[in-house]
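tmp note - PAS domain S-box protein
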Amino acid sequence: MCQNKPVIEFSPEGVINKASPLFLSTMGYRADEIIGHHHRIFCPPSLVSSPEYSQFWQRLARGESFSGKYLRLAKGNRSVWLEASYIPVSDRRGRVIRVIKIAADISERVHSALEQEAVVNAINRSMAIITFNPEGIVLEANENFVNATGYKRDEIIGKHHRLFCAETLYK
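out:
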């Protein structure tokens, strides 16, 4: 198995066959705690009970690959975000005999993005903000700006910023 990426191997039905040391470390498990268990041990209950989850494994068993960002649960229900590819491996007759998952732990990146989004949302809730293009045309105004100025959003979007300035400023 790959040494520099978290890798895990499943049966076509989703039962864990083996896992790389880095995968085990990422998820906080020992091999004997997961081998023989189903992939669902890494998933939130709401996902496991969904039709999409069943379809995911059915499609893998038919040979479809999947790549994306996935929220998974490590030991102790710790959230781990993985950017991963699920790759079905077929025998000479075309039957899927195993599924390999190659992953990267992107938890830190996802948490940073969520924190930045929270800061932006907090700013938007607490400050009047308007954005312009380089020519001074209004591109967006948040609710606080609209409330503070008494304009409606559709009255200012697409208009020049001189709308907010005294006429003497432009003479």
